[in-house]
Amino acid sequence: MQPINRIEPKISKMSPLESINRRKQDAPNIAPLGEVSAEKIERLFGQKTPKKSIKLDPAPSRVGYKIQRLWLTPIVRNGVTIGFPLMIIFLIGLYFLTNDNLRAKVSGVMLEAQSNIQARPEFKVELMKIDGGTEELAKSIRKSLNLQFPTNSFDLDLPKIKNQIEQMNEVKVASLYLRPGGLLEVQLDQRKPLIIWRDGPKLEMVDSEGELAGLLTSRLDRLDLPLIAGTAAKAHMFEALELYAMAEPIAHRLRGLRRMGMRRWDAILDRGLIIQLPEDNPLDALNRVLALDTAQQILTRDIVIIDMRDAARPVLRLTDHATKIIRASAVNE
Amino acid sequence: MQTLYETQRIMRQKRRVALQRGVVAILDVGTSKIVCMILQFDPSVQMHASEGMGAIAKHGAFRIIGVAKTRSRGVKLGEISTMEETERAVRTAVQGAQKMANVRVDHVMACFSGANPKSYGLAGEVEVETGNVTDMDISRVLAACDAPDFGDGREAIHAMPVNFALDQNPSLSDPRGQIGHLLSVDMHLLTIDTRVIQNLITCIKRCDLELAGVVSSAYASAISALVEDEQELGAACIDIGGGSTSVSVFLRKQMIFADSVRIGGDHVTSDLSSGLQIPKNTAERIKTIHGGVVATSMDDRDMIDVDGQSGDWDHDRRQFTRSEIIGIIRPRVEEILEEVYHKLQAARFDTLPSQRIVLTGGASQIPGMEGLASRILGQQVRLGRPLRVHGLPQAATGPDYAAPVGLALYAAHPQDECWDFDLPAQKFGVKPMKRALQWVKENW
To answer: Where a domain ends, among B193, B226, B252?
Structure first.
């Protein structure tokens, strides 16, 4: 049973404003409906208010229908999907080509971007390291390349530098590497001088391939290398080396070998002594001289030239002094 | 007759254009649903047809590339009652089909079931001019048919030569080339209300489409639901739709009679709605889920919750037995079938050699329909489904799609109609000149 509760409510006369204020006092979270937003209703009553009225009619609008039909028309469709973008690209290209100002601006921006990238520390080159060569060679390479460090790896023309290094006489092959950490590494394959060739006033060092391996200012710089002289002597370098090897016992006296008349060798010893070797079998001839030397110390005698050109008839030319002494003794006898 | 002849010829021209383009839309404007199908014709078959074959079999293979269905609005008893609403529904269907097909269609063939179709049998007779029957003879004999006075505000939708007779040979389908003296023709003329077809034309025009042909849905659904021997030996196709039931009778592969009963499935729904006091859509749902026409003792115990959607607790929680629902549905279905029976009687269906009856259409799916129909209409009743058509989705193979599928078949193999033959020259000579003058007068 419901309790009967029939107490007449007290009706006091209040102005509308007053009553609203009173209501707000009683229940501050309840506002008149007109003021409540949809979200608030959702929050208060836990009901979702529809955001959009549901479309009951599935029919397309007349415009939508026409647009769809237009879109299905092949010419329109191709025009919009292919023709229109092509036209826009074409127009942009045309504008770009006709507008010098814009073109300059764009190229300026591109250059700036390029230089910005190149200026990054990753591309900086601070050192050059030269491996596989003598110190003098390295020094001369540095001097000839004349690179200013630090520099940028984009500014280095490596093929040109390689070419420049390989132009040098002493260098056979050069390999260049840009190592991380700003290092330009040059790996050299230096030519090994085998012999010195005196060509007029020039002193050239020659390697085993007959190539120039450097110039000398003084013979004294490389006393360890044998010396040859004379026109086209270089071509018979190996014969000269064999002769040198044979002349080991008299190495301390041997000054060098001279190619005579582009066909035979002269071995030149100190004190102006010349051993004239034949065109054929110079080794045998030298061997005979050495044998004579061991037997009779011929090289210590007062002799200017030992002529071994005719193997059957070796000839000695004495010094003037010796000749005089011989003449005098002959007169005395 | 002349204006009709011209409009039909124009539509024929448009159909030819559409078939050359290879794409044509089918639009079935029904009372409960509007279906749009997009057909694509195989160009190779078409090319082949244009080389050798004549005007009769112009087009071959086709495929359905788009189907869309929408709830029909603004259509009552198979006729447009609210143009605006129907236009929107047609737009929805056409847009859906276009979207599925990804092809734009401009030409549409339509079918509808209302507009009081009336059948007339006409006969004409001429002497063959030369020894052989030529196209011109056929034109002459068709022109010689004396059109009955079917009254103002009515127009012919179909005028098909059904049967030719040459001298003593009473049944020829194509007498061209044959030798004889006296050529006579039986023509089947189907007339409908002009107002209805004008509404349809306007509606389709407002959707930016061009009408390439109009077909009575009685004819269309019979094409797809009747099999070949039924069409040959004589059969009736009864398409029980939403707003109206159309009846057509076929003999020797030609439609010889068509009519419609202006009662359909929607009336059953409205009976349920008023009987149970529930909204229309609830009634429709109950009809499709629990409907039937034969009550058994099991149905007395089958309680169905019926929601009145009124907000009243007692009203919304009523229960009915299935028998009660059947008790509402059955009289209306019987009424429909009896009306159909009367129409068939009027067409002298019982004199045909075979009296097969094929039920199709959405309302033919009511369980027990076959048994009830055989009690009213005759023993040879079956339920018909539309023919299988290439590309037709599974959802569109039910009996409620008989009319659109039939229309698609018709679009591929149109029946010769009287306007497919040129009228004899003496009737038509000065006409183009006059028309040109009139056009100039109207436009300047």
So the answer is: B193
